[in-house]
Amino acid sequence: MTTTLPVAAPRPRPDAVDRPRVLLAPVTITPSKPLTPSHLKGLLWTDVMYRATRPLADVAYRYSHTTYHATEQTLGFWEFLDRSRGATDYGDLTEERIGELYVAFRAAERAPAQALLPYAEAVERGWVHPVGTRVLQLWSGHYAALGLHDPGLLRHQPPGLGLDAVLDRLTALGMCLDQREVGGPVYLDLTRFGLPLRRLVTADGRPNYLACALRELIPLAPDFDELVLLYDHELDSDYQQLERVLSAFGPRVRRVSVGRVPIEGRIRSARQGGWRGLHAGTLIDAARAEHHEDAVRLGMRLYFIAVLGPGWQQSFRSDLLAQCLRRAERLLDEAGPEADAAALREQLAQHRKDHVYVNPYRLTSHLLGKRRAAPAEDLLRAVFL
Fold first, then answer.
1. For 32-88, where are the E strands, in sequence order?
2. Does 241 have pLDDT greater than 70?
3. Residue 262, CB half-sphere, CA atoms under 13 Å: how many?
4. How many CA atoms lie within 13 A of 185 on its CB side?
5. Start-end ranges of CATH 3.40.50.620 in the chain?
6. How far lies 380's CA from each of 138, 142, 300, 333, in Å?
7. Residue 252, phi then psi, degrees to nearest 5
8. pLDDT digits (tens, 9 = 90+) for 95-143
9. I need a surface site. Which of 30, 118, 346, 370 has the fewest CB within 10 A?
10. How many angstroms separate the CA atoms of 223 and 335, rounded?
């Protein structure tokens, strides 16, 4: 299985016998700023989960920027740029400069919904603002440097359902409170499950992130046995709602919360800036200046997964990242001989509980354990490099 998208269900391998079908669906990052340490942590976590689970199941990795371009956060930024800067060539702007423009947008007065309507219509036809394309091109370079699986950053991957179709599905399930006929918003109504009403669409017709996620995941859910949602712990309330809805379509839904990375003890949103010298581009460049490619890829995973862990208690520390890069070099030098495919599957399966996916923290931490045997080269190649 080398292609995961845009197909709904992964294609079974010729040797597959009753292999479970797993869909990984991490929260997307708005292409409007540099990738922060928090972003890197989530991306590396998802990548190790994806690559470690593939020998044990048929896995699809759904990560579509197309779906979430329709949110006000993205459309508003694009409208702000066109209104404030006019026709601009973004092809040579850095992530830092684009991020500064995004911070300015977040501080400015919001445009009315009517101003965003042409952008929303264009997005449905596959259009992407040049600033978004520029950021995604830069991110593609970071993905390549870190050995991350690219799930289609620059590919047009529309959701399987339109907004009205999703609302119809929710209404049929008794999960929708639609007040549009009286000029009101649309709510996801899971109150009978003890969850609060959650607005999906504003009174002036703007869908939020959760509405876009439902457009994407509801049509995919029936084709999988397990659906894994990876997200920032601050979004836990929305993802509880998403879990409840998607479970109604058949799969076992797993929620995996990954904590953000504090900077000097504070967790800050990327919309506030503060990434200078600490974003993916600068961290990768600094690491590659001192270490070879494989050590950078493995060391980054050791730090952002095993050392920082799933929580959000530990602030970013460049000295610990440097230690992990040196540790990665030693692990690569000491790597044991390749095992057979069955032995690799058995080793990976040890890092699961009652779920199909492999736990990235348990697997990666295992590499750092004292008195552990040197990792086999095939494990490193298959999962970490």
1. 58-61
2. yes
3. 9
4. 13
5. 21-156+207-258
6. 26, 20, 13, 12
7. -80, 120
8. 999 999 999 999 999 899 899 999 999 999 999 999 999 999 999 999 9
9. 370
10. 38
* CA gyration radius, the chain: 21
Residue-wise pLDDT tens digits, 153-208: 999 999 999 999 999 999 999 999 999 999 999 999 999 999 999 999 999 989 99
pLDDT tens-digit map of 375-385:
888 899 999 99
What CATH class is the domain 21-156+207-258?
Answer: alpha beta
In one letter, which amino acid is 90? Y
Question: What is the DSSP code string of 127-160?
Answer: ---HHHHHHHHHHHHHHHHHT-----TTS----S
The Cβ of residue 23 has, within 10 Å, a number of other Cβ atoms equal to: 26
Specify the residue for token string 């409007």: 32
**Residue owning tokens 């994806």:** 50
**In the prediction, which pLDDT does 8 show?**
38
